[in-house]
Write a structure and sequence with these properties.
Radius of gyration: 19 Å
Strand order of the largest sheet: 1-2
CATH topology of one domain: first zn-finger domain of poly(adp-ribose) polymerase-1
Structural class: alpha+beta
Strand content: 15-25%
Shape: elongated
Largest sheet: 2 strands, antiparallel
């Protein structure tokens, strides 16, 4: 019997024993990745120009800012500094 070492206990996935997750497309390179493996980055998007925003705030207007979620594959997330590599001792956890 050949023993093949396993790099990560989770297999690189975040989630439970659900089975297969839906596929999402990387926002940077277009690679198709399982949703449990992709890194989700949520940012608030301003619909108003910065100068107009300050004027509206002074007048007491409530401005909604919807959030956009982008999914990155692991290699693009590391390359664009969204995540950083963990210590070798912490990787298997």
């Amino acid at each position: 019997m050949i023993f093949i070492p396993k790099k990560r206990k989770s297999g690189g996935r975040s989630g439970s024993s659900k089975g297969q997750y839906a596929k999402v497309q990387c926002a940077k390179c277009g690679r198709t990745v399982a949703r449990s493996k992709a890194k989700a980055v949520t940012r608030r998007v301003s619909l108003v120009d910065s100068r107009m925003y300050t004027e509206l705030k002074k007048s007491g207007t409530i401005i909604q800012a919807p959030s956009k979620t982008k999914y990155y594959c692991i290699s693009c997330a590391i390359h664009s500094h969204q995540i950083s590599q963990r210590d070798k001792s912490l990787r298997k956890e």
